[in-house]
Amino acid sequence: MFNIKNHELYIDQVAVTSLAKKYGTPLYVYSENKIIEQLDTIKSAFLDKYPDTHAAFACKAFCTKYMCRLLEKEGFWLDVVSGGELYTAIKSDFPADRIEFNGNNKSDEELIMALDYGINRFVVDNASELYHLEKLCIDKSVKANVLFRITPEVSANTHDFISTGKKDSKFGIPLDDAILYPLIEAAIKSDVVHFLGFHFHVGSQLHESNTHLSALEVILKLILNTKERFNYTISDFNLGGGFGIKYTDADHPIALTEFIKPLMHRLDTFCASHEIKRPHVSMEPGRYIVGEAGIQLYTIGNIKVIPEVKTYASIDGGMTDNVRPGLYGAKYHALIANKADLEKDTLLDISGKCCESTDILIKGLSVPSPERGDILTVFSTGAYGYSMANNYNKLQIPAVVVVKADEHELIVRRQSYDEMIEREV
Ligand SMILES: Cc1ncc(COP(=O)(O)O)c(C=O)c1O
Asked: Which protein residues touch ligand 1 with a CB less than 6 Å away?
């Protein structure tokens, strides 16, 4: 995906600085080849290897019409968590029967929108949602497929802020018999929802599958108890997303095929030993599909040297276009695209231009002597960058460009100042 010619960094066959020049900075850039490579890995590690499976892109990672169209073409499903994400899918003509709806507080308006579009399934997060959904289904004389998101009470080995399966999590139905089983029974007996099975998502940026394996044991017990108590065999199980990527040299996530293999093996042996038909299995990765496929470009501006303390290089973006370092200490690697293989002699902290001391994108980055006008390239920014972008300090949301071999296409244009204030009276 990357190579260097004449000290210049290339993404696929396009010089990074030429993109900065043409589209301006800050800029989000994606390699389409890399996205497709990731989708192909999901096909070979999961979809083609195990029958009766599907994979949905957790579109929160990079929700754009471009992604919806690409995923549609590649045969993937879409996992949405809001009316806005669903609207993006609808406007991209994404097939309703390949959409699932997650989220811990779907409003009536969002549920109606999803029912009207006829999406495939809802991942119900709590009791109140089930009852509201049933009411709306009765009003509309439709039936909805539902899975229950279970809080599996496992602690993922990742940053606390992206760990979602712990007992005290805001997500999912608690593992409490008095809450869970009446809800399962209600869904099974309901005339307006069709109970498919269970879902969990234990956290993000996971480097190994041990937490998934622990969560799976919880689900297996539920599958068995549901059969014994209600004589009901679930048809579907969704193992969530969370597969880790490489942000820096410190990241060593195991290969997807290795991540998935023990889970599928355990599920198969469990089902065989209990004479239960193995449920349809789905996953919903976000970061894994787009994370490493994306880079961000910035222009270096002021350089502040504090003698014997540190040197800051300020960039023309920051926590508005990548909030992850400020939000939960996410780490990134970067280099100067126009000095890609020159000797590194300066240690920098890369500071954003927002009026917050926490707006530091990278600490302790080694670079060749930096100058105003250099193009900084930050790697593995394809997930949760554009989708978390905001207008703090009234900074504009940057444009998004997709590189296809030696070509490039603008898929989101930069927000204008007028667009920023057009809703204000
Ligand atoms: C329910 C659910 N599924 C899938 C994902 C995608 O996670 P990741 O991008 O780490 O694969 C998330 C992330 O927040 C999630 O909450």
From this structure: 58, 61, 102, 164, 201, 204, 240-243, 284-288, 383
